[in-house]
Write a structure and sequence with these properties.
mainly alpha; rod-shaped
Length: 62
């Protein structure tokens, strides 16, 4: 059902409209995955430090 609606909208736009919409969607997806990867890369060092501190605090002689 949703596919029919999309097909009707695309027919009104023609081939150019369909292509630009497809490229736009692909760009958004790639940008999203890059943002996630950057977030992981930036948060990994602080996570490692937190784990390291946690492990060290376990073995501190009292």
């Amino acid at each position: 059902m949703a596919v029919e609606g999309r097909r009707k909208r695309e027919e009104g736009r023609g081939e150019e409209g369909r292509r630009s919409q497809r490229e736009e969607g692909r760009g958004k997806r790639e940008a999203g995955s890059k943002n996630i990867l950057n977030g992981l890369l930036l948060s990994a060092p602080s996570a490692m430090v937190a784990i390291n501190n946690e492990v060290r605090s376990e073995f501190v002689p009292r």
